[in-house]
Automatic annotation (TrEMBL):
Pfam families: FAD_oxidored. It comes from Streptomyces bangladeshensis. This is FAD-dependent oxidoreductase. The keyword Cell cycle does not apply. InterPro entries: FAD/NAD-bd_sf, HdrA-like. It comes from the Bacteria. Keywords: 4Fe-4S, Iron, Iron-sulfur, Metal-binding, Oxidoreductase.
Length: 469
């Protein structure tokens, strides 16, 4: 063990007062430049607000680029997993067409990605997922924000928020020292709900019985992958490959031989737009919390160790990987679940699985309930009824008891089960766009976000191409 452990007896110390650089003011401040933040910034700009987006890394894209979460998962309402042969993809029931349930900013982004050769448009052939190139993804997002006149600040980590008489002030840690930015409304797209929590919002973490969250995974890209040789193997061993995951016998043999030590029973691959390349989602770090610097450190050590095991296993045991190697891993381990901010409504697993509709709907989802076991092997997968989708109400984006702050992405208000569906990036972009629109209307009309009429938010979202029933 070579990483720092938390102190056995936590002790608080006082820090001296400090001054911060005042970086300006804006109507809408979006904190976090991942899918939710991209949706929020463009949604707010299109609704007529002045927008600043602040991101902790030196690039945009969030988990899509920092954690290499590839591809964008399906946002269609009739998709189920294929059950035969070497399809290595997701297919709709009866091979029918799936209907997209997310529109708006997501499709603006997808059109630009496809035009640049950076992504493959969702279709039956891709199982309605969107394989993309993470490096070109960064560039396309830069251009979208410039075209929508969103001002952007990178390398700035949000550390606190202060309430002013008629505004809210966010505090950021930077290489230039601390700085502050004032806003009429902040949209918290940090994933962890950092801003809302700092403002005093209540939140839940993990499953109710023990507080454990879904495990973390470090994704990575392997090149010199021979797809034809791998496909020939899966055709010869149809019981060993289902959709995008499998190789159970090979994993079991490597585990028994002491070559693999993973809290999961299979491997998971995703295609990319680049030939000879595959994205691997097979590491799993359990019983760690993404808001703990100690746990994050342990997760990085553990996940990189697992990655090395998996890469060696693939090269030595899996046809098609003999000449392959890891070309890139995530900048940080991917975090599936941390805080879920308690909003004016909490979406439930039952709402998701019964495809519940709401009068104040501002986004839709159809991705399955997808819970990676927080404590070990196994994944729970339950699907939304065929041809259906569930609504996400505006109330899920409005924290209880907190003014001038909205949340979007995986930290919106919901229970552990519902979260496992709405956490994926297309739905995060949809809730981001909805929060951005609501924030813009609140700022331009000088209202609190909770006082903006839902009908006005829905009207603006439809005008931006969002998918609402």
């Amino acid at each position: 063990m070579s990483y720092l452990m938390p102190p056995r007896v936590p002790r608080k110390v006082d820090l001296p007062p400090r001054q911060a650089l005042h970086a300006g003011a804006t109507q809408v401040l979006v904190v976090g430049g991942g899918p939710a933040g991209i949706g929020a910034a463009i949604g707010a700009a299109n609704a007529g607000a002045e927008v600043v987006l602040v991101e902790r890394y030196g690039f945009l894209g969030g988990n899509a680029t920092a954690a290499l979460v590839m591809p964008l998962m399906s946002f269609h309402n009739e998709v189920k997993q294929a059950v035969a042969g070497d399809t290595a993809r997701l297919l709709p029931p009866d091979h029918g067409e799936g209907e997209p349930v997310v529109g708006g900013v997501l499709w603006v982004l997808l059109d630009q990605l496809v035009r640049r050769g950076a992504a493959i448009r969702p279709s039956l052939e891709t199982g309605y997922t969107v394989p993309f190139d993470p490096e070109l993804f960064k560039l396309v997002v830069y251009e979208l924000l410039i075209n929508h006149e969103v001002r952007t600040l990178l390398h700035s980590f949000a550390s606190d928020v202060l309430s002013l008489p008629d505004r809210v002030r966010a505090v950021f840690e930077t290489k230039s020292g601390p700085l502050v930015m004032d806003a009429d409304v902040i949209v918290d797209c940090t994933g962890d709900g950092d801003i809302a929590a700092a403002a005093g919002a209540s939140y839940d973490i993990g499953r109710p019985e023990d507080g454990w969250t879904q495990p973390m995974s470090l994704m990575f890209r392997m090149v010199r992958f021979d797809h034809e040789e791998f496909a020939a193997y899966t055709r010869a061993h149809p019981d060993q490959w289902r959709g995008v995951h499998g190789l159970w016998d090979l994993v079991r043999a490597a585990t028994d031989a002491g070559e693999l030590d993973l809290p999961r029973e299979d491997v998971l691959f995703f295609a990319t737009p680049n030939s000879g390349e595959v994205a691997v989602n097979s590491t799993r770090v359990t019983e760690v919390l993404g808001t703990s610097v100690w746990d994050l450190t342990r997760a990085e050590f553990t996940a990189h160790h697992q990655m090395a095991q998996i890469a060696r296993f693939l090269r030595e045991r899996v046809p098609g990987f003999a000449d392959s190697y890891v070309v890139q891993s995530g900048v940080q381990v991917g975090v599936r679940e941390t805080r879920r901010i308690v909003g004016e409504y909490q979406l439930t697993g039952d709402d998701v699985l019964t495809a519940r509709k709401f009068e104040d709907a501002v986004a839709r989802g159809a991705y399955p309930v997808d819970i990676h076991n927080p404590s070990g092997r196994g994944t729970l997968l339950k699907r939304v009824p065929r041809g259906e989708s569930y609504d996400i109400p505006l109330r899920c984006l409005i924290p209880q008891g907190v003014d001038r702050i909205l949340v979007a992405g995986r930290c919106i208000s919901g229970d552990h089960v519902a979260h496992s569906s709405y956490r994926v990036m297309p739905i995060s972009m949809a809730t981001g766009q909805a929060a951005g629109v609501c924030a813009a209307l609140a700022a331009t009309q000088r209202r609190q976000p909770r006082d903006v009429p839902v009908s006005a938010v829905q009207r603006a979202l439809r005008a931006q191409g969002a998918s609402l029933l």
